[in-house]
Amino acid sequence: MAALIGRDLLSLADLTTQEVQELLTLATQLKSKQVQLRCNKVLGLLFSKASTRTRVSFTVAMYQLGGQVIDLNPNVTQVSRGEPIQDTARVLDRYLDVLAIRTFAQQDLETFASYAKIPVINALTDLEHPCQVLADLMTIQESFGDLSGLTLTYVGDGNNVANSLMLGCALAGMNVRIATPVGYEPNTEVVEQARAITNNKTSVTVTNDPEAAVKGVNVLYTDVWASMGQEQEADDRMPIFQPYQINENLLSIADPNAIVLHCLPAHRDEEITDAVMEGSQSRIWEQAENRMHAQKALLASVLGAE
């Protein structure tokens, strides 16, 4: 993965199809301990949003590589007092080897990366969640062996996860369908970006019909109906999104061997029923574990671990 050394990952579109597959292969080798890598470097975590899986998986991944982690909680740094992004970026660039940022605006992430020479990784913005989707693709590959030609349907809010899923599936040679209520569709620029990546070899479909979107698919995926920062909208969204719940009826329309994914945290019996989440077709816990393995592969690649 020499081609990734020193590079940022701000969007899945920063990667090529070959680089995605090589990352997934490395992640699988690291998980099975077929490959062991060492990297005595320092990772900084600058998170402006709450996090469980992203924070812990990045931390454990870096420790297992032999590196160190500094949790740069904005509340105890000068970021909370309004220090400009470009100033923070140029200072941290001189202390750290790699930085993972979890923030609201994609533009803030891109500004940070433009002022820092070290690799900057998107650990979630309002626009994208690329590291999540690397783990998702790894989980699907574990279940089916080959990603090419599979179809994934995402049902729910057209949020950052939906955006990254479109890009990730396009890069992996998968078809992707996004089913949302009217007015909650994914970012139109990302839709067109994903379609351009497919080069008409696979499809990127956006629809308001959840049953049509789920028919015969290999993977069903959902996320909470109100993302971080939208909690005040949760009650209003509930009746709008109810037809988009992944339940046993919706699952029965998919391929009999379909798997179910959720990026977590889940609001059980809202966007997904408890029965489906705990059912035999759920791969949610494997998916959560794979965050660590996929991110370990990414860190090792951008840092040039040996």
From TrEMBL:
It is found in: Cytoplasm. Its EC number is 2.1.3.3. GO terms for biological process: citrulline biosynthetic process; L-arginine biosynthetic process via ornithine. Pathway: Amino-acid biosynthesis; L-arginine biosynthesis; L-arginine from L-ornithine and carbamoyl phosphate: step 1/3. It is an enzyme of class 2 (transferase). InterPro entries: Asp/Orn_carbamoyltranf_P-bd, Asp/Orn_carbamoylTrfase, Asp/Orn_carbamoylTrfase_sf, Asp_carbamoyltransf_Asp/Orn-bd, Orn/put_carbamltrans, OTCase_ArgI. It holds the Pfam family OTCace. Carbamoyl phosphate binds at residues 51-54, 78, 102, 129-132, 263-264, 291. GO terms for molecular function: amino acid binding; ornithine carbamoyltransferase activity. Residues 7-142 form the Aspartate/ornithine carbamoyltransferase carbamoyl-P binding domain. One of its GO terms (cellular component) is cytoplasm. Signal peptide: none annotated. It catalyses: carbamoyl phosphate + L-ornithine = L-citrulline + phosphate + H(+). SUPFAM superfamilies: Aspartate/ornithine carbamoyltransferase. L-ornithine binds at residues 160, 223, 227-228. It comes from the Bacteria. The keyword Amino-acid biosynthesis applies. The keyword Lipid biosynthesis does not apply. Keywords: Amino-acid biosynthesis, Arginine biosynthesis, Cytoplasm, Transferase. Residues 149-301 form the Aspartate/ornithine carbamoyltransferase Asp/Orn-binding domain. NCBIfam families: orni_carb_tr (TIGR00658), PRK00779.1 (NF001986). PANTHER family: ORNITHINE CARBAMOYLTRANSFERASE, MITOCHONDRIAL, ORNITHINE TRANSCARBAMYLASE, MITOCHONDRIAL. This is Ornithine carbamoyltransferase.
